[in-house]
UniProtKB/TrEMBL annotation:
Gene Ontology biological process terms in this record: tRNA N1-guanine methylation
Gene3D superfamilies associated with the record: 3.40.1280.10, tRNA(m1g37)methyltransferase, domain 2 (1.10.1270.20)
InterPro entries: Alpha/beta_knot_MTases, tRNA_m1G_MeTrfase_C_sf, tRNA_m1G_MeTrfase_TrmD, tRNA_m1G_MTases_N, tRNA_MeTrfase_TRMD/TRM10
This protein's UniProt keywords: Cytoplasm, Methyltransferase, S-adenosyl-L-methionine, Transferase, tRNA processing
Residues given in the record as S-adenosyl-L-methionine binding sites: G109, L133, G134, D135, Y136, V137, L138
Domain tRNA methyltransferase TRMD/TRM10-type: 1-225
Statement: the UniProt record of this protein carries the keyword Transferase: yes
Protein name: tRNA (guanine-N(1)-)-methyltransferase
GO cellular component labels: cytosol
Length: 229
């Protein structure tokens, strides 16, 4: 998979050299290219923003540098992702869909956002998704893009050592949150690991874990609880 990122802060993405994403790049599963939007400006000040038509606070990202950048970067099969708190919610399902694509391009806006005509232009020419991480506001798309890239990259076939560790996680299995997990020692600061996990009764362990998943989901994310539990 090829991932292109367009940003005015390329340094945000230096950490992609490490961790799982870094390994995927080394192994040739991922080709990540970070681009500085200002490379597509032509004035002395490398201007990327201007005041909003209609008035209001803040600045808007000008369409011209985005147009030149995206014309150069987007291949025919690319999905353009525009991180925005005004977008559809990013989910594990979306991550699974995006992991099947050959090219993802992230247009990271700063300030109040990118001139709408950029989104309209590329929506008319290809696939564009305005995507939000959740109901809170970040200063720009960079941190959101990083989260999405990590969520997608670990789902690329061949990425994670044990594919089972992908299925048993929160949001993958039945839509319930993950159950609590423990390792040695069996007692730590007078806190014992639940007996059932030490017994080797795999049926009992599975039942306990499912019960814990349901309880956690009820407590933290009642909106996710399926009708049948
Ligand atoms: Cl994708 N962008 C920004 N700027 N803020 C956000 C977000 C995205 N998702 C949640 N908050």
């Amino acid at each position: 998979m090829r991932i292109d990122i367009v940003t005015i802060f390329p340094a945000f993405f230096d950490v992609l050299d490490v961790s799982l994403v870094g390994k995927a790049r080394e192994r040739g599963l991922l080709d990540v290219r970070v681009h500085d939007l200002r490379d597509w400006t032509h004035d002395r000040h490398r201007t990327v923003d201007d005041t909003p038509y209609g008035g209001g606070a803040g600045m808007v990202m000008k369409p011209e540098p985005w147009g030149e950048a995206l014309d150069e970067i987007l291949g025919d099969d690319a999905v353009l992702i525009v991180p925005s708190p005004a977008g559809e919610r990013f989910t594990q399902k979306m991550a699974r869909e995006l992991a099947q694509e050959s090219q993802l391009a992230f247009a990271c806006g700063r300030y109040e956002g990118i001139d709408q005509r950029v989104i309209d232009e590329y929506s008319a020419r290809g696939r564009v998704r305005l995507v939000s991480l959740g109901d809170y506001v970040l200063n720009g798309g960079e941190v959101a893009a990083m989260a999405m890239i990590e969520a997608v990259a670990r789902l690329i076939p061949g990425m994670v050592g044990n594919p089972e560790s992908l299925v048993e996680e929160s949001h993958e299995d039945e839509g319930l949150l993950e159950y609590p997990i423990y390792t040695k020692p069996a007692v730590w600061r007078d806190r014992a690991v639940p007996d059932v996990l030490l017994g080797g009764n795999h049926g009992a362990i599975a039942a306990w874990r499912r019960e814990q998943s349901i309880e956690r989901t009820r407590r933290h994310r009642p909106d996710l609880l399926p009708d049948e539990v």
